[in-house]
Design a protein that fits this description.
The strands form 2 sheets. The chain has a 6-stranded mixed beta sheet with strand order 2-1-3-5-6-4, with helices on both faces. It has a 6-stranded parallel beta sheet with strand order 9-8-7-10-11-12, sandwiched between helices. α1 links the parallel β1 and β2. The model has no long low-confidence stretch (mean pLDDT 95). The protein is of the alpha/beta class and 290 residues long. It is globular and about 60 Å long.
């Protein structure tokens, strides 16, 4: 018997579509090992399984049967999972979206670490940027978290655009109820909104390895605009590449990826993660994939 056999162990995982390139398993497992925890983190890829969000109930039940301590939830399940949970944290309830489910004593408790993850990455990566007016593309589960974080971080007016206008309107209405009627609006004219904006945040899946391309016409970008991305694989999306070529200040999705994982690790394990160590590990993985 080796000393490893005496280490406590924990099983966690990630449910989502097209997640084979996720760096979350490596980040969680290495941080666990650094803290003397044998953390096993599994991918539950809906694409690989030929399943959709309608399978969430069965997957949650299976995870409970197999002794999972918790699950991360990503696209396209962050909102669909909400009705399947017993309890929501205040952040998850306010956002209507969950990216972390703790399974404990027969109960499913939903949390959201996306907002805090984006906020910390934003503070570190784009310090001091103007934020009187910001345009956000995407009003899904991650978009809701980022929108709340942007307003909490001092954005004056956030304009939300989505391919589904009703979804953008619903998010804007929720933001107005929480932050004030003059702080958020749904987008009716993207070109005009971007032209008046200090910054742009992409919260759509466009730019992911499986969904390459730009989430808006390149002609709308200009050097004075800062551009932030939540996609982190690839770390340099077409949007960021195009923006950098114009001279924009940019923020990739790596910070949000790490800091949401920091929050999830704490929830799964009850241990305090070393955020700087996790950042270094993420940077090592990013460099190795270049």
């Amino acid at each position: 018997m080796t000393s490893r056999d005496h280490h406590p162990s924990l099983l966690a995982g990630l449910i989502g579509s097209g997640i084979q390139a996720s760096r979350t398993p490596a980040m969680q497992e290495r941080e666990g090992a650094a803290q003397g925890l044998r953390l096993v983190y599994r991918l539950i890829d809906l694409d690989r399984l030929g399943l959709g969000p309608e399978a969430l109930e069965e997957l949650l039940t299976a995870a409970e049967w197999m002794g999972f301590a918790g699950l991360n939830i990503t696209y396209p399940c962050k909102q669909a999972v909400v009705p399947l949970l017993h309890e929501l944290s205040p952040d998850a309830r306010a956002l209507g979206a969950v990216n972390t489910v703790v399974l404990r004593d027969g109960r499913r408790i939903g949390h959201n670490t996306d907002g805090s993850g984006f906020a910390e990455g934003f503070r570190r990566g784009l310090p001091g940027v103007a934020r009187a007016r910001v345009v956000q593309l995407g009003a899904g589960g991650a978009g809701a978290a980022v929108a709340h974080a942007l307003l909490a971080e001092g954005t004056g007016l956030l304009t939300v655009a989505d391919t589904d206008p009703a979804r953008a309107e619903a998010l804007a209405a929720g933001l107005q109820a929480r932050f004030g009627s003059d702080r958020a609006a749904s987008c009716t004219d993207l070109a005009a909104a971007v032209a008046a904006a200090d910054g742009l945040v992409n919260c759509t899946p466009v730019g992911m390895a499986k969904l390459p391309g730009l989430p808006l016409p390149a002609a709308l970008l200009r050097a004075a605009l800062w551009v932030a991305e939540i996609v982190y694989f690839p770390l340099e999306t077409e949007l960021l590449r195009t923006a950098r070529a114009l001279g924009c200040r940019t923020l990739d999705g790596g910070g949000m990826a790490v800091f949401q994982a920091v929050g999830a690790f704490r929830l799964f394990t009850g241990l305090a993660p070393d955020a700087d160590r996790m950042l270094r590990h993420f940077a090592e993985m990013a460099a190795a994939s270049d």
